[in-house]
């Protein structure tokens, strides 16, 4: 339902989304449908030979999709000069020219220069390959000290948000505060009024440990802030979602038993948690949605399907339309 609502908000707006892997059949299938449904204006990156070979081998027609070859782009010198300026002495002109042969750097510069509105990559690249150019060139948004991620979990009419599941390895209490605020903002973009639970293996001091302490500290700091959403923690997952458990473990909490937005203490728990939900629980995981960047740039799982790419393109366009 959320994706359908977001699709309605971006449809017909001509939002230009760069796809860094134009030679991938999953990407090609997705952009054909995206353009046919007037959801976004897709731009495929890659050499004409790569793109054509893929389309012919898979019986696809992308001849009416905009395509750009990073190795034969008229504005490459202007782009390289701009990139030198952005890198502030960390890369010279020749190094920038070489980096721009990569579709990740090239696509990110298209977004940075306003030629495209957003970028979607990672069907064949690692998360680091997608995020590194974004951090170096687009950078974080004003007032945002870090980049984080979240997943939208959907099953039927139920939906939850989980973060951070793909970026920050072992966030500090300060970083957890930022991740929580960013994730609550994303939840609202998706039409979810956030009730945020900071997760741990302890509920309201029932156990001790470094992980418990940092989640409790993050919750304390958040409650002191002028935020406009409900948050509580630390708490176990059953306490966060089951009212009967919450009545025993956190009877005075406004979040426990009713949480819809979950903040994990580290990358291991977050990544494992969302994948268990997706693989064993039958939840559809949409993401990772990147948060804190100065432009809509998102990463794909290398195991993604064309339908998942389609949905992530809608999310990316919605970040542009609704304001990231």
TrEMBL record:
Gene3D superfamilies: 3.40.50.10950, Isocitrate/Isopropylmalate dehydrogenase-like (3.40.50.10750)
Domain Phosphate acetyl/butaryl transferase stretches: 2-317
EC number, UniProt record: 2.3.1.8
Pfam families: PTA_PTB
Uppermost EC category: transferase
Stretches assigned to coiled coil: none
Keywords in alphabetical order: Acyltransferase, Transferase
Molecular function GO labels: phosphate acetyltransferase activity
Pathway: Metabolic intermediate biosynthesis; acetyl-CoA biosynthesis; acetyl-CoA from acetate: step 2/2
Reaction equation(s) it catalyzes: acetyl-CoA + phosphate = acetyl phosphate + CoA
Domain of life: Bacteria
Family in the record: Belongs to the phosphate acetyltransferase and butyryltransferase family.
Protein name per its UniProtKB record: Phosphate acetyltransferase
Organism: Faecalicoccus pleomorphus
Name of encoding gene: pta
């Amino acid at each position: 339902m959320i994706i359908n609502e977001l699709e309605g908000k971006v449809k017909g707006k001509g939002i230009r989304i760069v796809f860094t892997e134009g030679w991938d059949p999953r990407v090609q299938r997705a952009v054909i449908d995206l353009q046919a449904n007037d959801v976004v204006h897709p731009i495929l990156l890659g050499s004409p030979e790569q793109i054509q070979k893929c389309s012919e081998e898979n019986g696809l027609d992308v001849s009416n999709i905009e395509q750009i070859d990073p190795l034969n782009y008229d504005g490459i010198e202007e782009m390289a000069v701009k990139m030198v300026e952005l890198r502030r002495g960390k890369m010279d002109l020749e190094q920038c020219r070489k980096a721009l042969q990569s579709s990740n750097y090239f696509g990110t510069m298209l977004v940075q220069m306003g030629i495209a509105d957003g970028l979607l990559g990672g069907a064949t690249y690692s998360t680091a390959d997608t995020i590194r150019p974004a951090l170096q060139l687009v950078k974080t948004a004003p007032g945002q000290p870090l980049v984080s991620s979240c997943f939208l979990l959907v099953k039927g009419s139920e939906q939850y948000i989980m973060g951070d599941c793909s970026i920050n390895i072992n966030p500090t209490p300060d970083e957890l505060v930022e991740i929580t605020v960013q994730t609550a903002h994303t939840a609202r973009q998706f039409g979810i009024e956030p009730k945020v639970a900071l997760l741990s293996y302890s509920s309201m001091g029932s156990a001790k440990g470094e992980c418990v302490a940092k989640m409790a500290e993050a919750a304390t700091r958040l409650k002191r802030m002028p935020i406009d959403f409900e948050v509580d923690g630390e708490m176990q997952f059953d306490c966060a979602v089951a009212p009967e458990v919450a009545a025993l473990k956190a009877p005075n909490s406004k979040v426990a038993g009713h949480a819809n937005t979950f903040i994990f203490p580290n990358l291991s728990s977050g990544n494992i948690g969302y994948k268990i939900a997706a693989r064993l629980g039958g939840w559809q995981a949409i993401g990772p949605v990147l948060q804190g960047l100065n432009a809509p740039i998102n990463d794909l799982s290398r195991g993604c399907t064309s339908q998942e790419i389609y949905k992530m393109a809608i999310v990316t366009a919605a970040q542009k339309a609704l304001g990231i």
